[in-house]
């Protein structure tokens, strides 16, 4: 089973930041074989002033002891430093940029219709401090019903870091369109209402619908061996 780390930082918004950061990781991912350190995938995303770095590993580094993401960690940190800076107010060292997983759900059997790898969507919002148990409870109750199957959900992971909430959603080929189609159904409306005391839009001035909460992927790497 793949183990995932999610890193959250601030990033200067704009295409230049994304290009420099993507080019930096692209160079070192091609030349240093991160898979030798247990890293098998990497996805970089942006959302307003946020930088989201998803690292897929073959095992939990807390178990294997292999915590380094790339042999050239220091060179990468220096190259992206003008664009990427810590987010949490309590930041003291790089480990403080790792979001905390507080909920995970997957169906006992994969939904029918999965013909390729799942589509991954990362939804970003703000979370009320200390609300993780309530949010986990709400999703646990919903995931026990029929809504996940209707949306083709193959996995759900919830993370928090400071006041940032990340909802990593994996679905079948139906992708995020199923969320739009079911947005006004009673089951979807109920979970949104139940979450409203705890979860709010990251940028209320620009939020108009579910798509406005989705992070944009700007770099992806997968190990070939």
From TrEMBL:
SUPFAM superfamilies xrefs: Dimeric alpha+beta barrel (SSF54909)
Superkingdom in the source lineage: Bacteria
Signal sequence range: none
Name used for this protein in its record: Polyketide synthesis cyclase
